[in-house]
Amino acid sequence: MTETDGQQGSAAIGIDLGTACSCVGVHRHSGVEIISNEHGGRTTPSYVAFTDTERLVGDAAKNQAARNSANTIFGTKRLIGRRFSDASVLADTKLWPFKVKAGRGDKPMVAANYKRKQKLLAAEEIASMLLAKMKGDAEAYLGAPVANAVVTVPVSFDILQRRATKDALAIAGLNVLGVIHEPVAAAVAYGLHESTEAKNVLVFC
Description:
The chain is α+β, with helices and mostly antiparallel strands.
């Protein structure tokens, strides 16, 4: 991943799309730079909220969650690529303050009121809103358009979950250069800052 990898010479970014928080970085000047959001944070809460007037993403969404819990969505990484009838999904829906319904093909759909209208959104759509923010933060930092990305996923993700994650990036306007397992990404990140001396490293996930 370099400053000029991929489509039309655009910068390529790396995104850690997390359940609780997400972050974005870029490889340039022979090193990895983690890109801060508008609040100076190196991670952004994986929250999306809907109100009568606007859509909020990240810190802004999380900060108003207490007064708008039914329309503040988080944890959708646990829904992406799954069926509504999956035991883990049914268990999660009992804990979340927002509603999740079964859609076509048993797809879990998040219910939210946005601009006084009821919306049903797939997990990929929610994730794409967060990814679009990561993309925007990167573009503001680099001063150039970003079209390409590498994204991390848990080792436990199956083909459907990986495909749904790719779909989320596509909706956000990002070309997927690669999907990397989170422990592999952690090992690569560790190696970037270590000497070439041979050693064994354990990565816990």
